Write a sequence for this structure.
């Protein structure tokens, strides 16, 4: 019993087809089965990404309103010495040394923190890779000679006057693609 795959006949090994076929048909079918192909897969590198810190913190004690900028390039400092009471999200990448990668940050309207009675829009996402100046459009990124790279993501939160004290929660997506 034969079927076609594209324009090539393919043998179908079903019990009724070969068991009842004449010997010459069985030999012909066996000729189609004696074929080989090579296959190979090369895994260039395993890559891993881990979020090590959430974007966030406590605005309640600061009585903040208006735009609150979370600078991803700001050096670590005690909370009392920071311009913003919030910290950036932090990520670590691991993979093949020198591997090129790209980051895609959320766009306008992609993230809103929701509370029980109000929301906080997040805009102006920026990234700082390896402690470099923050940018919204990172380019030319590569893993270091050990195959590692850390980066931080910050943004601007639009905090309304008189915002009720509560937990405000949301999610955003940072896409890492390796070339």
């Amino acid at each position: 019993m034969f079927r076609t795959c594209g324009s090539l006949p393919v043998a179908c090994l079903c019990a009724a087809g070969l068991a009842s076929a004449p010997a010459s048909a069985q030999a012909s079918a066996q000729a189609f089965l004696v074929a080989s192909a090579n296959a190979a897969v090369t895994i260039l590198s395993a890559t891993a990404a881990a979020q090590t810190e959430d974007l966030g913190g406590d605005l309640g004690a600061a009585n903040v309103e208006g735009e609150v900028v979370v600078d991803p390039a700001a050096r670590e400092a005690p909370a009392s010495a920071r311009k913003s009471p919030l910290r950036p999200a932090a990520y670590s990448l691991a993979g093949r040394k020198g591997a090129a990668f790209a980051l895609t940050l959320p766009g306008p309207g992609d993230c809103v923190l929701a509370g029980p009675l109000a929301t906080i829009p997040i805009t102006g996402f920026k990234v700082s890779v390896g402690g470099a100046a923050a940018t919204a459009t990172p380019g030319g990124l590569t893993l270091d000679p050990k195959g590692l790279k850390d980066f931080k993501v910050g943004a601007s939160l639009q905090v309304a006057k008189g915002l009720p004290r509560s937990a405000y929660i949301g999610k955003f997506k940072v896409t890492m693609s390796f070339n």
Notes: The longest strand covers residues 148-159. Confidence is low (pLDDT under 50) at residues 1-21, 25-33, 77-82. The radius of gyration is 29 Å.
